[in-house]
Amino acid sequence: MASETNYPPRYQDEDDDEEEEEEDEEDEEFDEDPSRPPFAGSEEDRLEAVLRRLAADEVRIRVHGVAIRGCARTRRAAAEAAVGPDLARAATVPELLRAAAAAGDRLRRLGAFDSVSITLDAAPPGAPADGVLVLVDVAEARGGAGAGGLGVFANAETRSCSIDGSLRFKNLFGYCETWDASGALALDQTLELRAGVAVPRLGVIPTPLTARVSFLSEDWLKSSLKEHLMGVSVGLLSTTNHNLAYNLSWRTITDPARKFSNSIREQLGHSLLSSIKYTYKIDQRDSSIRPTRGYAFLSSSQIGGLAPDSKNTRFVRQELDLRVAIPLGVWNGALNAGVAAGVIHPLARGATGSISPLPERFYLGGNRSLVCRLGGPSSLLGFKSRGLGPTDSQTCAPKKSENDASTSEQDAMGGDIALTAFADLSFDLPLKPLRELGIHGHAFVSAGNHANLTECDIRKFHLTEFLQKFRSSVGVGVVVPTRLFRMEINYCHILKQFDHDRVKTGIQLNFSSP
């Protein structure tokens, strides 16, 4: 029995030598790849090496089919449109890998899935030998399709408060669309309602489509004017940096007290705004709430008066906004600086020449954050909303002040050209609990001015005089950042102001969304 189970030594040596030669050959093959990590001999490393060779050798394949699995609420047509035809057309392994990466990225950008994975499987029996089946597995977002919020905010400038509410529904009808509605009701009789829908991809159209309706009714602060606005906005093109939208609005400006100034007499009544607006935006800052490094730039161009009956709304409007954040390396400090400019050129003629529509002009002032908002010249801390001249006296009888001096109310006229600049220094506070919550301090300086441009004044516009009339303010404060908004508690001091400017020094509280 022992002789039957023992093999001659020479056969064992030969077998062992053959196995060692095969192992040596395999080791040499793997050692040829310089990217292979040392001591890699596991099945995962071998599979990675095989896939690398398949991708490099242009191995030809034939995609038998593409199967999408995991769509419960999402319509299959919406997922198929995002996947696209490139997966089914791939003829080589490299083409298939590139198409799979692009399809996975498009599916994730729909915002309806928590995870996306694309795998290959053997084709069913009867398929060609080089056939493969592409499996696209998606996991729909959890937590429900709806969300909402309600808040009460105080406005120290108008000495009133407002109730803000919002609703948001995602993938409600299975097209990965986002429905949203928001409203704000203030005690100063200001009412704002907005609703819209955004579809990230519709059929073969590769860019998102948006549509919004809005209604606004407000009293202009410290003015006799009331504005009512109803509008529809349709997004024609939307990418990471580019946005093209068409807007159609019906606006009514009234003066129930009949105290309007002579300069805005022609602006009263109804007007139709039909405009198209193109925006280029790039934001490379590390945060929109507290930027510490990076830059941001926005350019907005708008043409109004596309409809044949656009009364007093024919204009060309251009805005530029540039922001830079520089880290300082001490106390997590950063210097944010920015400059914004805007100009509107009227195309309509009134009784006194070319005039720009009153609501489309630039108005400076208000309690908005200097850092968050990226959208042209507007914010100037320490000055009330629409608080900068030029102004025009209302036609009502002058009021008697406490010292019996006659005064008259002023209507803010806005400006056809505006320029603002700011610098904001942020830093950590010395208390550790505040640093852990992200609460930090900042010091700022802001300056700006706007002026009117008429048909006769364009050639006589003096830049030096415009810069000499810059208003400016400085201040310090504490910033409380959250995921939804940025709250600032600031102390403002006015450095330079002119007659009829409405200012507010001292403690101010403001909320700004990113």
Automatic annotation (TrEMBL):
Major localization class: plastid
Protein name: Bacterial surface antigen (D15) domain-containing protein
Biased composition (Acidic residues): 13-32
Domain Bacterial surface antigen (D15): 223-511
Record keywords: Membrane, Plastid, Plastid outer membrane
InterPro entries per record: Bac_surfAg_D15, D15-like
UniProt-annotated location(s): Plastid, Chloroplast outer membrane
Gene3D superfamilies named among the record's database cross-references: membrane protein fhac: a member of the omp85/tpsb transporter family
Location of region: Disordered: 1-44, 389-410
GO cellular component: chloroplast outer membrane
